[in-house]
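Supplementary Text 2. Reproducibility record for the structural model of the 122-residue chain.

All settings were left at their defaults, and a single model was retained for analysis rather than an ensemble. We include the record here because the model underlies the residue-level annotations in Supplementary Table 4.
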Amino acid sequence: MRSIVFAKRLIKNEKLTTLDIETIFKICQKGIFTKIKGTKIPTNSNLIKVYATTVSGARRLVFVLDEKIKVGYFLFFRRKDDEIGKNISIKNPKFKKLLIKYLAIWNEDMENDDFEVVRLNL
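Retained model, structure tokens:
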């Protein structure tokens, strides 16, 4: 992944702080991801999960990774013990429902140029 794109409304929905964004940036520089199944994912993209250990505990990141241009689009940053973070799987109905909602928000923010891009130092 060369860059991470943060849709502004997803930053707000996930209640990301500046420290959270810095943590996500550091974690993603390691380049260790797991592909997971999703729904309504754009062509040439994969849904990926990243495990994160932070000062405040274990967390889970979810991105849409555009394989063609190597850009990750942020979706989730959840504690391992919340209802989404403990089971990031399409088989979890709560995750699936929120995934569909967040993909719609992400798409709208991309169309409205309401996002920020962070380039990774690889």
